[in-house]
Amino acid sequence: MASAFDGGNVTDRAASGISDLFVIGGGINGCGIARDAAGRGLSVVLAEQGDLAQGTSSASTKLFHGGLRYLEYFEFRLVREALEERETLLTAMPHISWPMRFVLPYSPDMRFESDTPTSRLLSLVMPWMKGRRPAWLIRLGLFMYDNLGGRKILPGTRKLDLRTDPAGKPLKPGFRLAYEYSDCWVQDSRLVVLNARDAEARGATILTGTEVIEARRDNGIWLIATDGPNGPATYRARALVNAGGPWVAQVVHDVAHIDTREGVRLVRGSHIVTPRLYDHDRSYFFQGTDGRIIFAIPYEQDFTLIGTTDQDHDGPPSEAYCTDEERDYLCDFASQYFARPVTAADVVWTFSGVRPLYDDGAKSATAATRDYVLSIDEAGGAPLLNVFGGKITTYRRLAESALARLAPHFPQAGGKWTAGVPLPGGDFPVDGVADLIDRLRRDYPFLTEAWATRLVRNYGTEARLILGTATTPADLGPDFGATLTGAEIDWLISREYARGINDILWRRTKLGLHLTPAQVAALDDYLTQALPARAAG
Protein backbone atom coordinates (compact mmCIF):
# COMPACT_ATOMS: atom_id res chain seq x y z
CA MET A 1 0.00 0.00 0.00
CA ALA A 2 1.32 3.45 -0.96
CA SER A 3 2.35 5.71 1.89
CA ALA A 4 1.86 9.46 2.21
CA PHE A 5 5.57 9.61 3.08
CA ASP A 6 6.70 8.01 -0.20
CA GLY A 7 8.23 10.07 -2.97
CA GLY A 8 9.70 12.91 -0.95
CA ASN A 9 12.25 13.84 1.66
CA VAL A 10 10.47 13.90 5.00
CA THR A 11 13.03 16.18 6.58
CA ASP A 12 12.66 18.79 3.85
CA ARG A 13 8.87 18.70 4.07
CA ALA A 14 8.65 18.58 7.85
CA ALA A 15 7.56 21.51 9.96
CA SER A 16 10.51 22.97 11.82
CA GLY A 17 11.37 21.15 15.02
CA ILE A 18 9.65 18.34 16.89
CA SER A 19 6.55 19.07 18.93
CA ASP A 20 5.77 17.25 22.13
CA LEU A 21 2.15 16.45 21.24
CA PHE A 22 0.30 16.21 17.95
CA VAL A 23 -3.46 16.11 18.54
CA ILE A 24 -5.83 14.76 15.90
CA GLY A 25 -9.34 16.21 16.27
CA GLY A 26 -10.71 19.68 16.91
CA GLY A 27 -13.68 18.72 19.06
CA ILE A 28 -13.97 19.44 22.76
CA ASN A 29 -11.66 16.63 23.86
CA GLY A 30 -8.93 17.48 21.38
CA CYS A 31 -9.03 21.22 22.10
CA GLY A 32 -9.28 20.60 25.84
CA ILE A 33 -6.18 18.36 25.77
CA ALA A 34 -4.30 20.87 23.60
CA ARG A 35 -5.09 23.71 26.02
CA ASP A 36 -4.10 21.70 29.09
CA ALA A 37 -0.85 20.50 27.52
CA ALA A 38 0.14 23.94 26.23
CA GLY A 39 -0.46 25.41 29.69
CA ARG A 40 1.94 22.84 31.14
CA GLY A 41 4.72 24.08 28.86
CA LEU A 42 4.47 21.36 26.20
CA SER A 43 4.67 22.22 22.51
CA VAL A 44 1.43 21.22 20.79
CA VAL A 45 0.07 20.99 17.25
CA LEU A 46 -3.62 20.25 16.70
CA ALA A 47 -5.12 19.31 13.33
CA GLU A 48 -8.85 19.30 12.55
CA GLN A 49 -10.03 18.05 9.17
CA GLY A 50 -12.90 20.55 9.01
CA ASP A 51 -14.04 23.32 11.33
CA LEU A 52 -13.62 23.24 15.08
CA ALA A 53 -16.61 21.51 16.72
CA GLN A 54 -17.91 20.54 13.31
CA GLY A 55 -18.93 17.08 14.50
CA THR A 56 -20.29 15.83 17.82
CA SER A 57 -19.17 18.83 19.86
CA SER A 58 -21.66 21.18 18.21
CA ALA A 59 -24.53 18.68 18.26
CA SER A 60 -24.93 18.05 21.99
CA THR A 61 -27.94 18.88 24.15
CA LYS A 62 -25.75 21.78 25.35
CA LEU A 63 -25.75 20.97 29.04
CA PHE A 64 -23.13 20.83 31.75
CA HIS A 65 -24.94 18.18 33.76
CA GLY A 66 -24.22 15.26 36.00
CA GLY A 67 -26.42 12.89 34.05
CA LEU A 68 -29.32 12.19 36.38
CA ARG A 69 -30.40 9.08 34.52
CA TYR A 70 -26.89 7.57 34.74
CA LEU A 71 -27.59 6.88 38.40
CA GLU A 72 -29.93 4.11 37.23
CA TYR A 73 -26.89 2.46 35.63
CA PHE A 74 -24.87 2.80 38.87
CA GLU A 75 -22.40 5.12 37.07
CA PHE A 76 -21.66 6.84 40.37
CA ARG A 77 -18.06 7.85 39.62
CA LEU A 78 -19.06 9.43 36.31
CA VAL A 79 -21.99 11.29 37.87
CA ARG A 80 -19.93 12.52 40.82
CA GLU A 81 -17.13 13.76 38.56
CA ALA A 82 -19.62 15.52 36.26
CA LEU A 83 -21.44 17.12 39.19
CA GLU A 84 -18.16 18.39 40.60
CA GLU A 85 -17.24 19.81 37.22
CA ARG A 86 -20.46 21.80 36.71
CA GLU A 87 -19.45 24.53 39.14
CA THR A 88 -15.74 24.37 38.28
CA LEU A 89 -16.60 25.04 34.65
CA LEU A 90 -19.28 27.60 35.48
CA THR A 91 -16.74 29.81 37.25
CA ALA A 92 -14.36 29.66 34.27
CA MET A 93 -16.89 30.56 31.58
CA PRO A 94 -19.82 32.52 33.07
CA HIS A 95 -20.48 34.12 29.66
CA ILE A 96 -21.14 30.90 27.71
CA SER A 97 -22.46 28.81 30.62
CA TRP A 98 -25.13 29.59 33.18
CA PRO A 99 -27.33 27.87 35.77
CA MET A 100 -30.62 26.42 34.62
CA ARG A 101 -33.50 24.93 36.60
CA PHE A 102 -35.12 21.71 35.38
CA VAL A 103 -38.69 20.69 36.10
CA LEU A 104 -39.28 16.93 36.34
CA PRO A 105 -43.04 16.21 36.29
CA TYR A 106 -44.02 12.99 38.00
CA SER A 107 -46.55 10.42 36.82
CA PRO A 108 -47.18 6.91 38.20
CA ASP A 109 -46.97 5.63 34.59
CA MET A 110 -43.26 6.45 34.28
CA ARG A 111 -41.14 3.37 33.73
CA PHE A 112 -37.54 2.24 33.75
CA GLU A 113 -35.80 0.93 30.71
CA SER A 114 -35.85 -2.81 31.20
CA ASP A 115 -32.07 -3.31 31.00
CA THR A 116 -30.91 -0.87 33.69
CA PRO A 117 -29.35 -2.30 36.86
CA THR A 118 -31.90 -0.36 38.94
CA SER A 119 -34.80 -1.80 36.93
CA ARG A 120 -33.52 -5.34 37.36
CA LEU A 121 -33.00 -4.83 41.10
CA LEU A 122 -36.48 -3.33 41.61
CA SER A 123 -38.07 -6.15 39.61
CA LEU A 124 -36.63 -8.59 42.16
CA VAL A 125 -37.52 -6.77 45.37
CA MET A 126 -40.72 -4.97 44.18
CA PRO A 127 -42.13 -7.11 41.33
CA TRP A 128 -45.60 -5.57 41.74
CA MET A 129 -44.25 -2.25 40.38
CA LYS A 130 -43.89 -3.88 36.95
CA GLY A 131 -41.08 -1.56 35.86
CA ARG A 132 -42.66 1.68 37.07
CA ARG A 133 -40.52 4.38 38.73
CA PRO A 134 -41.78 4.98 42.28
CA ALA A 135 -41.78 8.59 43.51
CA TRP A 136 -39.53 7.71 46.47
CA LEU A 137 -36.84 6.48 44.07
CA ILE A 138 -36.91 9.75 42.13
CA ARG A 139 -36.58 11.67 45.39
CA LEU A 140 -33.64 9.46 46.39
CA GLY A 141 -31.97 10.02 43.01
CA LEU A 142 -32.38 13.79 43.31
CA PHE A 143 -31.03 13.73 46.88
CA MET A 144 -27.92 11.96 45.58
CA TYR A 145 -27.73 14.41 42.67
CA ASP A 146 -27.78 17.34 45.09
CA ASN A 147 -25.06 15.92 47.34
CA LEU A 148 -22.66 13.74 45.34
CA GLY A 149 -20.74 16.62 43.79
CA GLY A 150 -20.21 19.05 46.64
CA ARG A 151 -22.68 21.62 45.28
CA LYS A 152 -21.96 25.19 46.46
CA ILE A 153 -23.33 27.64 43.87
CA LEU A 154 -26.37 25.91 42.41
CA PRO A 155 -29.63 25.72 44.39
CA GLY A 156 -30.94 22.32 45.46
CA THR A 157 -34.06 20.37 44.61
CA ARG A 158 -37.53 21.53 45.59
CA LYS A 159 -41.02 20.12 45.13
CA LEU A 160 -43.53 21.92 42.88
CA ASP A 161 -47.32 21.92 42.79
CA LEU A 162 -47.98 22.13 39.06
CA ARG A 163 -51.56 23.23 39.69
CA THR A 164 -50.29 26.59 40.99
CA ASP A 165 -46.70 26.94 39.74
CA PRO A 166 -46.23 28.64 36.31
CA ALA A 167 -44.27 25.58 35.17
CA GLY A 168 -47.53 23.64 35.14
CA LYS A 169 -49.33 26.01 32.78
CA PRO A 170 -47.96 24.61 29.47
CA LEU A 171 -48.50 21.00 30.62
CA LYS A 172 -51.51 18.73 30.49
CA PRO A 173 -53.71 19.10 33.59
CA GLY A 174 -53.06 15.52 34.72
CA PHE A 175 -49.58 16.44 35.96
CA ARG A 176 -49.80 17.75 39.52
CA LEU A 177 -46.44 17.01 41.17
CA ALA A 178 -42.96 17.91 39.94
CA TYR A 179 -39.43 18.22 41.26
CA GLU A 180 -37.19 21.12 40.29
CA TYR A 181 -33.41 20.67 40.32
CA SER A 182 -30.30 22.41 38.98
CA ASP A 183 -27.95 21.84 36.07
CA CYS A 184 -26.12 24.21 33.70
CA TRP A 185 -26.43 25.30 30.11
CA VAL A 186 -23.37 25.68 27.87
CA GLN A 187 -22.82 26.95 24.35
CA ASP A 188 -21.01 23.84 23.22
CA SER A 189 -19.34 24.91 19.98
CA ARG A 190 -18.20 28.20 21.51
CA LEU A 191 -16.66 26.19 24.35
CA VAL A 192 -14.53 24.34 21.80
CA VAL A 193 -13.41 27.49 20.01
CA LEU A 194 -12.46 29.23 23.27
CA ASN A 195 -10.40 26.23 24.36
CA ALA A 196 -8.60 26.32 21.00
CA ARG A 197 -7.97 30.06 21.31
CA ASP A 198 -6.58 29.68 24.81
CA ALA A 199 -4.39 26.79 23.69
CA GLU A 200 -3.02 28.95 20.86
CA ALA A 201 -2.44 31.86 23.25
CA ARG A 202 -0.31 29.47 25.33
CA GLY A 203 1.79 28.44 22.34
CA ALA A 204 -0.17 25.70 20.56
CA THR A 205 -0.54 25.62 16.78
CA ILE A 206 -4.18 25.13 15.66
CA LEU A 207 -4.67 23.84 12.11
CA THR A 208 -8.23 23.79 10.76
CA GLY A 209 -9.22 22.35 7.40
CA THR A 210 -6.25 20.01 7.80
CA GLU A 211 -6.70 16.27 7.39
CA VAL A 212 -4.21 13.81 8.84
CA ILE A 213 -3.50 11.36 6.03
CA GLU A 214 -1.06 9.03 7.74
CA ALA A 215 0.96 8.69 10.93
CA ARG A 216 3.83 6.31 11.59
CA ARG A 217 6.60 5.81 14.11
CA ASP A 218 10.18 6.49 13.04
CA ASN A 219 13.04 6.02 15.56
CA GLY A 220 10.84 6.84 18.55
CA ILE A 221 9.18 9.83 16.88
CA TRP A 222 5.81 10.13 15.18
CA LEU A 223 5.78 11.34 11.58
CA ILE A 224 2.40 12.82 10.68
CA ALA A 225 1.43 13.56 7.08
CA THR A 226 -1.28 16.18 6.60
CA ASP A 227 -3.13 17.86 3.78
CA GLY A 228 -4.34 21.37 4.54
CA PRO A 229 -5.15 24.72 2.95
CA ASN A 230 -1.51 25.17 1.90
CA GLY A 231 -1.09 21.63 0.61
CA PRO A 232 0.71 18.57 2.02
CA ALA A 233 2.99 18.86 5.03
CA THR A 234 4.72 16.55 7.47
CA TYR A 235 5.03 17.10 11.22
CA ARG A 236 7.10 15.37 13.87
CA ALA A 237 5.93 14.73 17.42
CA ARG A 238 7.02 12.78 20.47
CA ALA A 239 3.45 11.65 21.19
CA LEU A 240 0.27 11.37 19.18
CA VAL A 241 -3.19 11.98 20.67
CA ASN A 242 -6.14 10.51 18.80
CA ALA A 243 -9.15 12.62 19.77
CA GLY A 244 -10.94 11.91 16.52
CA GLY A 245 -14.35 11.52 18.15
CA PRO A 246 -16.56 9.39 15.88
CA TRP A 247 -13.49 8.87 13.67
CA VAL A 248 -11.32 7.55 16.53
CA ALA A 249 -11.35 3.96 15.27
CA GLN A 250 -10.63 5.11 11.72
CA VAL A 251 -7.57 7.00 12.94
CA VAL A 252 -6.28 3.92 14.77
CA HIS A 253 -6.74 1.52 11.86
CA ASP A 254 -6.45 3.62 8.69
CA VAL A 255 -4.15 6.47 9.73
CA ALA A 256 -1.83 4.90 12.31
CA HIS A 257 -2.23 1.34 10.94
CA ILE A 258 -2.44 -0.22 14.39
CA ASP A 259 -4.46 -3.32 15.22
CA THR A 260 -6.57 -3.13 18.36
CA ARG A 261 -9.53 -5.00 19.79
CA GLU A 262 -10.90 -1.82 21.37
CA GLY A 263 -13.87 -0.43 19.53
CA VAL A 264 -16.24 2.48 19.42
CA ARG A 265 -20.01 2.36 19.38
CA LEU A 266 -21.50 5.16 17.28
CA VAL A 267 -24.74 6.42 18.79
CA ARG A 268 -26.78 9.10 17.05
CA GLY A 269 -28.43 11.78 19.13
CA SER A 270 -30.97 13.91 17.28
CA HIS A 271 -32.72 17.12 18.35
CA ILE A 272 -35.55 19.27 17.06
CA VAL A 273 -36.06 23.03 17.47
CA THR A 274 -39.50 24.63 17.51
CA PRO A 275 -40.80 28.16 18.12
CA ARG A 276 -40.93 28.86 21.85
CA LEU A 277 -43.47 26.53 23.50
CA TYR A 278 -43.79 28.34 26.85
CA ASP A 279 -43.03 31.69 28.49
CA HIS A 280 -40.88 30.93 31.54
CA ASP A 281 -37.11 30.34 31.57
CA ARG A 282 -37.00 26.85 33.09
CA SER A 283 -36.39 23.56 31.27
CA TYR A 284 -38.26 20.27 31.46
CA PHE A 285 -36.99 16.75 32.09
CA PHE A 286 -39.59 14.42 30.63
CA GLN A 287 -39.75 10.69 31.39
CA GLY A 288 -41.48 8.43 28.90
CA THR A 289 -43.55 5.30 29.30
CA ASP A 290 -40.78 3.53 27.34
CA GLY A 291 -38.18 4.39 29.99
CA ARG A 292 -36.41 7.01 27.89
CA ILE A 293 -36.00 10.68 28.83
CA ILE A 294 -35.87 13.90 26.84
CA PHE A 295 -35.33 17.57 27.64
CA ALA A 296 -37.30 20.63 26.51
CA ILE A 297 -35.10 23.71 26.89
CA PRO A 298 -35.50 27.46 26.17
CA TYR A 299 -33.23 28.10 23.19
CA GLU A 300 -31.84 31.23 21.53
CA GLN A 301 -34.54 33.44 23.09
CA ASP A 302 -37.30 32.60 20.59
CA PHE A 303 -37.18 28.81 20.41
CA THR A 304 -37.44 25.53 22.32
CA LEU A 305 -34.89 22.73 21.94
CA ILE A 306 -36.16 19.15 22.35
CA GLY A 307 -33.92 16.10 22.51
CA THR A 308 -32.28 13.73 22.40
CA THR A 309 -32.69 10.33 20.80
CA ASP A 310 -30.31 7.40 21.21
CA GLN A 311 -29.96 5.27 18.09
CA ASP A 312 -27.08 3.11 16.94
CA HIS A 313 -25.60 4.83 13.89
CA ASP A 314 -24.46 3.03 10.74
CA GLY A 315 -22.51 4.82 8.05
CA PRO A 316 -20.13 7.79 8.03
CA PRO A 317 -20.47 10.09 11.06
CA SER A 318 -20.57 13.12 8.77
CA GLU A 319 -23.83 11.87 7.26
CA ALA A 320 -25.78 11.82 10.52
CA TYR A 321 -29.10 13.61 10.37
CA CYS A 322 -32.38 13.62 12.27
CA THR A 323 -34.61 11.12 10.52
CA ASP A 324 -38.35 11.63 10.12
CA GLU A 325 -38.88 8.79 12.58
CA GLU A 326 -36.68 10.48 15.20
CA ARG A 327 -38.41 13.81 14.62
CA ASP A 328 -41.82 12.23 15.05
CA TYR A 329 -40.65 10.32 18.13
CA LEU A 330 -39.53 13.55 19.80
CA CYS A 331 -42.76 15.33 18.81
CA ASP A 332 -44.90 12.50 20.17
CA PHE A 333 -42.82 12.26 23.35
CA ALA A 334 -43.15 15.98 24.09
CA SER A 335 -46.86 15.85 23.25
CA GLN A 336 -47.39 13.38 26.10
CA TYR A 337 -46.65 16.33 28.40
CA PHE A 338 -47.48 19.61 26.66
CA ALA A 339 -51.13 20.62 26.51
CA ARG A 340 -50.70 21.80 22.93
CA PRO A 341 -49.37 18.93 20.80
CA VAL A 342 -45.98 19.35 19.15
CA THR A 343 -46.14 18.40 15.48
CA ALA A 344 -43.69 18.05 12.61
CA ALA A 345 -45.06 21.32 11.22
CA ASP A 346 -43.72 23.11 14.32
CA VAL A 347 -40.12 22.01 13.69
CA VAL A 348 -37.96 24.81 12.26
CA TRP A 349 -34.58 23.08 12.51
CA THR A 350 -33.10 19.71 13.38
CA PHE A 351 -29.56 18.62 14.13
CA SER A 352 -27.91 15.33 14.88
CA GLY A 353 -24.54 14.26 16.19
CA VAL A 354 -22.77 10.93 16.58
CA ARG A 355 -21.37 10.11 20.01
CA PRO A 356 -18.27 7.91 19.95
CA LEU A 357 -19.07 5.76 22.98
CA TYR A 358 -16.68 3.10 24.17
CA ASP A 359 -18.03 -0.27 23.05
CA ASP A 360 -18.66 -2.00 26.36
CA GLY A 361 -20.99 -4.61 24.90
CA ALA A 362 -24.21 -3.04 26.20
CA LYS A 363 -27.41 -4.36 24.66
CA SER A 364 -28.79 -0.96 23.67
CA ALA A 365 -27.45 2.42 22.62
CA THR A 366 -29.09 4.01 25.67
CA ALA A 367 -27.34 1.60 28.05
CA ALA A 368 -23.85 2.06 26.56
CA THR A 369 -21.51 3.79 29.01
CA ARG A 370 -21.01 7.56 28.70
CA ASP A 371 -17.77 7.30 30.65
CA TYR A 372 -14.53 7.96 28.83
CA VAL A 373 -11.78 5.42 28.25
CA LEU A 374 -8.17 6.37 27.55
CA SER A 375 -5.94 3.69 26.05
CA ILE A 376 -2.24 4.12 25.36
CA ASP A 377 -0.11 2.22 22.85
CA GLU A 378 3.60 2.61 23.58
CA ALA A 379 5.05 0.22 21.03
CA GLY A 380 8.14 1.66 19.39
CA GLY A 381 8.66 4.17 22.17
CA ALA A 382 6.43 6.91 20.81
CA PRO A 383 3.07 6.80 22.63
CA LEU A 384 -0.31 6.89 20.95
CA LEU A 385 -3.15 7.95 23.26
CA ASN A 386 -6.64 7.05 22.02
CA VAL A 387 -9.66 8.84 23.48
CA PHE A 388 -12.89 6.84 23.53
CA GLY A 389 -16.21 8.26 24.65
CA GLY A 390 -16.63 11.05 27.14
CA LYS A 391 -19.19 13.79 27.61
CA ILE A 392 -18.89 17.54 27.31
CA THR A 393 -19.24 18.09 31.07
CA THR A 394 -16.13 16.07 31.87
CA TYR A 395 -13.89 17.30 29.05
CA ARG A 396 -11.54 19.17 31.42
CA ARG A 397 -11.12 16.16 33.71
CA LEU A 398 -10.59 13.96 30.65
CA ALA A 399 -7.80 16.29 29.53
CA GLU A 400 -6.17 16.07 32.96
CA SER A 401 -6.40 12.27 32.82
CA ALA A 402 -4.90 12.25 29.33
CA LEU A 403 -1.91 14.30 30.49
CA ALA A 404 -1.52 12.02 33.50
CA ARG A 405 -1.28 9.00 31.17
CA LEU A 406 1.36 10.78 29.09
CA ALA A 407 3.28 12.19 32.09
CA PRO A 408 6.03 9.49 32.14
CA HIS A 409 7.07 10.63 28.66
CA PHE A 410 7.16 14.33 29.61
CA PRO A 411 8.74 14.71 33.06
CA GLN A 412 9.35 18.40 32.31
CA ALA A 413 5.63 19.16 32.04
CA GLY A 414 3.93 21.25 34.68
CA GLY A 415 1.08 20.06 36.89
CA LYS A 416 -2.68 20.50 36.80
CA TRP A 417 -3.73 24.10 36.27
CA THR A 418 -7.05 24.45 34.41
CA ALA A 419 -9.58 24.27 37.29
CA GLY A 420 -11.41 27.58 37.40
CA VAL A 421 -8.99 29.38 35.03
CA PRO A 422 -11.13 31.62 32.80
CA LEU A 423 -11.53 31.02 29.11
CA PRO A 424 -11.27 34.08 26.83
CA GLY A 425 -13.99 36.57 27.77
CA GLY A 426 -14.85 34.78 31.01
CA ASP A 427 -12.81 36.92 33.40
CA PHE A 428 -15.73 38.18 35.50
CA PRO A 429 -17.78 36.81 38.43
CA VAL A 430 -20.37 34.06 37.98
CA ASP A 431 -23.11 36.46 39.03
CA GLY A 432 -21.75 39.34 36.94
CA VAL A 433 -23.59 38.86 33.65
CA ALA A 434 -26.36 41.41 34.31
CA ASP A 435 -23.82 44.02 35.39
CA LEU A 436 -21.70 43.33 32.29
CA ILE A 437 -24.75 43.83 30.06
CA ASP A 438 -25.73 47.04 31.84
CA ARG A 439 -22.25 48.51 31.53
CA LEU A 440 -22.04 47.55 27.86
CA ARG A 441 -25.33 49.33 27.14
CA ARG A 442 -24.20 52.37 29.13
CA ASP A 443 -20.98 52.67 27.12
CA TYR A 444 -22.64 51.79 23.79
CA PRO A 445 -26.11 53.39 24.02
CA PHE A 446 -27.13 52.20 20.54
CA LEU A 447 -27.22 48.56 21.73
CA THR A 448 -30.65 47.11 22.46
CA GLU A 449 -30.94 44.85 25.49
CA ALA A 450 -31.26 41.76 23.26
CA TRP A 451 -28.19 42.78 21.26
CA ALA A 452 -26.07 43.46 24.34
CA THR A 453 -27.23 40.21 25.93
CA ARG A 454 -26.26 38.19 22.86
CA LEU A 455 -22.82 39.79 22.70
CA VAL A 456 -22.13 39.16 26.39
CA ARG A 457 -23.43 35.58 26.22
CA ASN A 458 -21.14 34.90 23.25
CA TYR A 459 -18.05 36.97 23.98
CA GLY A 460 -18.17 38.10 27.60
CA THR A 461 -15.66 40.86 28.33
CA GLU A 462 -14.33 40.58 24.77
CA ALA A 463 -17.55 42.09 23.41
CA ARG A 464 -15.88 45.48 23.87
CA LEU A 465 -13.05 44.44 21.56
CA ILE A 466 -15.60 43.78 18.81
CA LEU A 467 -17.47 47.05 19.37
CA GLY A 468 -14.26 49.08 19.62
CA THR A 469 -14.82 52.83 19.24
CA ALA A 470 -18.23 52.51 17.57
CA THR A 471 -20.77 55.19 18.47
CA THR A 472 -23.49 54.09 16.05
CA PRO A 473 -24.46 50.77 14.46
CA ALA A 474 -23.11 52.06 11.15
CA ASP A 475 -19.61 52.14 12.65
CA LEU A 476 -19.75 48.33 12.88
CA GLY A 477 -19.93 47.80 9.14
CA PRO A 478 -22.60 45.98 7.14
CA ASP A 479 -25.73 44.89 8.97
CA PHE A 480 -26.66 41.31 8.09
CA GLY A 481 -29.71 41.18 10.35
CA ALA A 482 -30.37 39.79 13.83
CA THR A 483 -27.62 42.14 15.20
CA LEU A 484 -24.89 40.42 13.13
CA THR A 485 -22.47 43.05 11.79
CA GLY A 486 -19.34 43.22 9.72
CA ALA A 487 -17.27 43.93 12.83
CA GLU A 488 -18.42 40.69 14.43
CA ILE A 489 -17.81 38.73 11.23
CA ASP A 490 -14.28 40.14 11.01
CA TRP A 491 -13.67 39.11 14.64
CA LEU A 492 -14.85 35.56 13.95
CA ILE A 493 -12.58 35.29 10.91
CA SER A 494 -9.50 36.85 12.48
CA ARG A 495 -9.79 35.50 16.02
CA GLU A 496 -12.02 32.42 15.99
CA TYR A 497 -10.94 30.38 12.95
CA ALA A 498 -14.21 30.90 11.01
CA ARG A 499 -13.84 30.18 7.31
CA GLY A 500 -17.34 29.53 6.01
CA ILE A 501 -20.92 30.61 6.38
CA ASN A 502 -21.88 27.56 8.48
CA ASP A 503 -18.96 28.22 10.83
CA ILE A 504 -20.52 31.60 11.58
CA LEU A 505 -24.27 30.92 11.48
CA TRP A 506 -24.42 27.48 13.12
CA ARG A 507 -21.31 27.09 15.29
CA ARG A 508 -19.83 30.42 16.42
CA THR A 509 -23.43 31.65 16.71
CA LYS A 510 -26.87 30.17 16.06
CA LEU A 511 -28.04 33.16 14.05
CA GLY A 512 -28.95 30.87 11.19
CA LEU A 513 -32.24 30.48 13.04
CA HIS A 514 -32.95 34.20 12.69
CA LEU A 515 -31.63 35.31 9.29
CA THR A 516 -33.71 35.40 6.11
CA PRO A 517 -32.48 33.77 2.87
CA ALA A 518 -31.67 37.23 1.50
CA GLN A 519 -29.58 38.07 4.57
CA VAL A 520 -27.74 34.75 4.32
CA ALA A 521 -26.97 35.49 0.66
CA ALA A 522 -25.62 38.94 1.59
CA LEU A 523 -23.39 37.36 4.24
CA ASP A 524 -22.15 34.81 1.73
CA ASP A 525 -21.19 37.62 -0.66
CA TYR A 526 -19.35 39.41 2.14
CA LEU A 527 -17.39 36.26 3.03
CA THR A 528 -16.48 35.71 -0.62
CA GLN A 529 -14.57 39.00 -0.46
CA ALA A 530 -13.42 38.98 3.17
CA LEU A 531 -11.85 35.51 3.34
CA PRO A 532 -9.46 35.85 0.36
CA ALA A 533 -8.49 39.32 1.58
CA ARG A 534 -7.76 37.94 5.03
CA ALA A 535 -5.67 35.07 3.59
CA ALA A 536 -3.71 37.47 1.39
CA GLY A 537 -3.13 39.87 4.27
Automatic annotation (TrEMBL):
It is an enzyme of class 1 (oxidoreductase). It catalyses: a quinone + sn-glycerol 3-phosphate = dihydroxyacetone phosphate + a quinol. Keywords: FAD, Flavoprotein, Oxidoreductase. GO terms for molecular function: glycerol-3-phosphate dehydrogenase (quinone) activity. GO terms for biological process: glycerol-3-phosphate catabolic process. Its EC number is 1.1.5.3. Gene3D superfamilies: 6.10.250.1890, Alpha-glycerophosphate oxidase, cap domain, D-Amino Acid Oxidase, subunit A, domain 2, FAD/NAD(P)-binding domain. Pfam families: DAO, DAO_C. The keyword Flavoprotein applies. Residues 418-524 form the Alpha-glycerophosphate oxidase C-terminal domain. One of its GO terms (cellular component) is glycerol-3-phosphate dehydrogenase (FAD) complex. InterPro entries: DAO_C, DAO_C_sf, FAD-dep_OxRdtase, FAD/NAD-bd_sf, G3P_DH_FAD-dep. It comes from the Bacteria. Residues 20-395 form the FAD dependent oxidoreductase domain. The keyword Flavoprotein applies. Its cofactor is FAD. Belongs to the FAD-dependent glycerol-3-phosphate dehydrogenase family. This is Glycerol-3-phosphate dehydrogenase. It comes from Paracoccus jeotgali.
